[in-house]
């Protein structure tokens, strides 16, 4: 695992120490960033953006955003083994000031209305077995934390059938190996 581009291009990121955490593969990550940068279907800029990385694991997505010029990444993770590695990765890249870690279970005790800022990009990479994605999206919609021009990026297993709230508009969808990446918003 590595940072693909930006300030820390090529720098290694510590991987998870167990098989419970499924990190975002470099190929899928690189493809996601190519779409963010080059798509004409939405207009979001990484430079100076505010990122929310849900189910962040070891922080691969949020750290890549910071390396590419985002101003802040908020990481939400509650699995202790992943948190230990996430904290080391943030420290190794010297992104303590630009990072906020929220150690909460997204489905049980995270209140999205507690966020006092809007996010330009919200990335959600829940465990493939997680079937309550629609509830998470409804909480994001109701809390109004996604910027009007912002996008949500959801990483799922290719064959998963998810129910999305009717307000969630899929802008683009891509398949990478066993992964499916969905880009959308609430506009």
What does it look like?
With 187 residues, the chain is an alpha/beta fold. The protein contains four helices and seven strands; from the N terminus they run αβαβαββαβββ. The chain has helices spanning 26-38, 60-67, 80-92, 133-143, and strands at 50-54, 72-76, 99-102, 119-124, 146-157, 169-176, 179-185. β4 (119-124), α4 (133-143) and β5 (146-157) form a beta-alpha-beta unit. The model has no long low-confidence stretch (mean pLDDT 92).
Quick rundown:
The chain has a domain of 84 residues: Vaccinia Virus protein VP39 (Rossmann fold, 3-Layer(aba) Sandwich), CATH 3.40.50.150. Helices cover 24% and strands 25% of the residues.
Please write out the topology:
Elements: H1 26-38, E1 50-54, H2 60-67, E2 72-76, H3 80-92, E3 99-102, E4 119-124, H4 133-143, E5 146-157, E6 169-176, E7 179-185
Parallel strand pairs: 1-2, 1-4, 2-3, 4-5
Antiparallel strand pairs: 5-7, 6-7
Name of the CATH class of the domain at 104-187: Alpha Beta
Name the helicity range.
Answer: 10-25%
- How many DSSP H or I helices? 4
Oligomer: single chain
Sheet with the most strands?
Answer: 7 strands, mixed
Element-level helix/strand string: HEHEHEEHEEE
Shape summary:
globular
Distance between the termini: 34 Å
Spans where pLDDT lies below 50 across 5 or more residues: none
Spatial strand order of the main sheet: 3-2-1-4-5-7-6
And the CATH topology of the domain at 104-187?
Rossmann fold
Beta-strand share of residues: 25-35%
What CATH architecture of the domain at 104-187 would you give? 3-Layer(aba) Sandwich
Rounded to an integer in angstroms, the radius of gyration calculated over CA atoms is 15 Å
Q: For this structure, what is the CATH homologous superfamily of the domain at 104-187? A: Vaccinia Virus protein VP39
Supply the helix-strand structural class.
alpha/beta
pLDDT averaged over residues? 92
